[in-house]
Amino acid sequence: MAVIFDPLRGRVRPEASHPDAAIIDVLTKTYSDADWAVLTGAGMSTDSGVPDYRGPDSPPRNPMTIQTFLSHPDQRARYWARSWMGWPRIRSTQPNQAHLALAELSVGGIITQNVDGLHQAAAEAVAADRATEAGALAPSPVIDLHGSLDRVICLSNGHLFDRDWVQRRLSELNPDFAEAVGIDPIDVETAPDGDVELEDTAGFAVLDCPECGGLLKPDVVYFGDSVPAARVQAANRIADEAAGLVVLGSSLAVLSGLRFVRAAAKEGKPVVIVTDGPTRGDEFADFRSISRVADFVTTWARR
Predict the structure, then answer these.
(1) Annotated catalytic, 72?
(2) Which domains does the chain have, with CATH numbers?
(3) Which residue in 4, 94, 147, 163 has the fewest CB atoms around it within 10 Å?
(4) Which has the closest alpha carbon to 85: 3, 196, 9, 164?
(5) Could you tell me the CA-to-CA distances from 221 to 13, 113, 155 in Å, in that order?
(6) What is the pLDDT of residues 188-233, one digit of tens each?
(7) CB–CB of 150/120 below 8 Å?
């Protein structure tokens, strides 16, 4: 499996540019919540039990690339075995305080690099709490920049399938696999992309598209793959219409996220970055917090 180059190598965590209270004054007094586009990364979901790739305590990880996935049936079996093992844990993950606090804010839109669906789950939870309130605001739009693990796509003809349905079919095809490898799916640690570290995947039966026989993969953007053009356009629309950009919990190591920061800085829009480690976009930040994301967003929502 390919080793992914770490573009953060050699970078160190910067100092905070301002106290959080001063940054939040800019967010809430100089501008309104609706003026901000928000870009989120894996640091939003760590408190929900979803690990990140590049946090201070993250172990080295070698995620699947699209080239590897397409290269051989054994590689696809390897991925699907690991994904099948990891899905129950991902399926049970719940939004944390950072997601819920952000859902309380009527920001201009959320562009997330995460594939866990927790922003949408948080919006549903907040909407349920507000159901009896007159004039409750609609949730902020969310763009899943890198796709979502709860969908599976056919690479031949674009057919979409519910991940739970695919999980059931894989379980039917591989009834003894978990026992054979000696792992309980609910107890394993998942990677940010929903799979688990599992060496022995020989013999795992892969499901093909029931409509056309094509290759199936989770509807997520693997390393080395491209974000679909329509999704990029929707994310660009949110960023272009915003007066500024807030980055929450992203190292900006991936160019698909960094480009929004570069574009905002080029246009003279304020850029706020909140994460406790270094990022690839620190030189573009007008306001930099090194606080925990949940603490920062909760304070923002209370203002």
Answers:
(1) no
(2) 20-302 (3.40.50.1220)
(3) 94
(4) 196
(5) 28, 10, 12
(6) 566 656 566 666 777 899 999 999 999 999 999 998 899 999 999 9
(7) no
Q: Give the strand pairing for 147-154 and 160-162.
A: antiparallel
Task: Give the pairing type, strands 271-274 and 287-289.
Answer: parallel
Q: How far is CA 268 from the centre of its chain?
A: 27
Q: What are phi and psi of 84, to 5 degrees?
A: -60, -40
Q: Write the burial class of residue 39 (CB in 10 Å: 0-12 exposed, 13-18 middle, 19+ buried).
A: buried
Q: Give me the phi and psi of 237, to 5 degrees please.
A: -60, -45
Given the residues 18, 99, 119, 146, the one annotated as active site: 146
Strand-pair category, 216-220 with 147-154: antiparallel
Residue 25 to residues 7, 21, 184, 302, 303, Cα–Cα distance (Å): 32, 6, 47, 12, 9
pLDDT at 1: 44
Task: Write out the two tokens for 145.
Answer: 């920049």
Task: Name the band, by pLDDT with cuts 50, 70 and 90, for residue 25.
Answer: very high
pLDDT in tens, 94-139: 999 999 999 999 999 999 999 999 999 999 999 988 876 766 678 8
> How many Cα neighbours within 13 Å face the side chain of 170?
29
Measure the CA–CA gap between 203 and 174, rounded to whole angstroms.
9
User: Is the pLDDT score of 185 beyond 60?
Assistant: no
CA angle 45, 79, 234 (to 5 degrees): 50
